[in-house]
Amino acid sequence: MAQLSVKKVKKELTKKMDKKTVKTQVAARKPLKAKQSVEEEIMLQPPRGMRDLLPGDQPYWDQIRRVLARISLEYGFGRIDTPAIEYANLFIRSIGAGTDIVDKEMYIFNTKGGDKVSLRPELTAGIGRAYIQHGMNVLPKPVKLFSTGPVYRYDRPQEGRYREHFQANFDAFGEQDPILDAQLIQLAHRVVTSLGIKNIQFQVNSIGCPKCRKEYQNLLVAYFESKKQKLCQNCKKRLETNPMRILDCKEDKCVQVSTTAPQSVDHLCMECRVHFKSLLEYLDELDLPYIINPRLVRGLSYYTKTVFEIWSNDEEGKRHSFGGGGRYDYLMEQLGGEHTPAIGFGLGMDRLVAEMKRVHAKMYIEPKPRVFLAQLGDLAKKKSLNVFAELQKNGILTAESFGRGSLKSQLRVADRLGVEITLIIGQKEALDKTVIVKDMVSGTQETVGHDRLILAVKKILKNNVVISHSEE
Q1: Residue 301 and residue 327: Cα distance in Å, rounded?
Q2: Closest by Cα among 311, 275, 281, 278 to 293
Q3: Domain 58-209+269-358 falls in which CATH fold?
Q4: Is the pLDDT of residue 20 over 60?
Q5: pLDDT attached to residue 443
Q6: Cα–Cα distance between 150 and 144 in angstroms, integer?
Q7: DSSP secondary structure letters along 196-211
Q8: With pLDDT > 70 as the criterion, what percentage of the chain qualifies?
Q9: Could you point out which of 30, 124, 147, 342 has its C-alpha 20 to 30 Å from the C-alpha of 85?
Q10: What is the fold, at CATH topology level, of the domain defined by 371-471?
């Protein structure tokens, strides 16, 4: 089939546009028919507990992303991204039945194919699944993986806590030496302080291994059984399903009862005791700010030995948690893999943004365009697209206002942006394949051909940098 000429296609399009205009005018005269059915009203807001991240907040998020990318590279972590949806039993088995996350907070649903799936409530289980599935156990140890992304928990929304929130995860597989625990705590410290958040403290604890934890849990159950009437309703249930979580309850009466409860560090086996002692010595050597919190257990059942959290204090003494983590030496076995000691932690990116705002931390400042491209007339507008693309391709950040018609309104935009060069293409320039180059600093201007434009712009920008440095 012979190809239609571009000229013929344009002619046909013009005819159709004219016919469409006539039909629209006729339709406008006809009375409107009543709607057959009432449509459901669109809620112009996201679901409860979720929100938009608007352009005004993005500099904070960009700063976090840049810091995470740089430090993950420095510490030898490779990027991994896993699906936001996994089979539900992955989280039920790893996080543990009886935890608040599994019992109350997971978004579980069936797909049209009948699969029971869940939005991920945390990142580690998915990363562990990927580690096993893709045979990463054959890689040199430790295998260090870094990830960021949204996680979902049907929790009560409050300040700094959303049902969709964003998390950064660092996980290291295949090493049981406590020096790795110390290195990850040092890494967490490095990330948070690099964001301008200085007043922080780590809370650390050891909850032992399955061997010594069994004896400790029996002591804990016996203690809380004797105080059962003083516990909140949730903790009475936890006494049957997950007694260690009682230590983490925030209810005042449960906090008071937990104050005199047996402490896990007093009931560690020799191996766990040596491991925790070595960790504390490493932290002292690194001069990291920490305290031992005997009530710290974390909310996930897969943790063993080391657990820790990162906290900040404001001027009024209020504490803000940015995240935490710990060892999970038996998680890979629970998921069907081979025994793999591992440790990891997560940082709540939403809370980091909130804290950066509170302490007036430095935001990422995006580079501003130094050149503005203005055009006048239809032909100039068409030609300016190629000019704009050529400037960007050569690394010259350029602003434009293609939608505005008058040259005056475009120049007002250029003035507001404070650019150093304004490029102008009018009807004559479009025909001559030239561009007017106006130096906004010196006030001079010249007309150059397209083949010399990039060189002319770079020369002016370079001279302006030299002038500004000499003035300083």
Answers
A1: 11
A2: 311
A3: BirA Bifunctional Protein; domain 2 (3.30.930)
A4: no
A5: 86
A6: 20
A7: T---EEEEEEE---HH
A8: 89
A9: 342
A10: Rossmann fold (3.40.50)
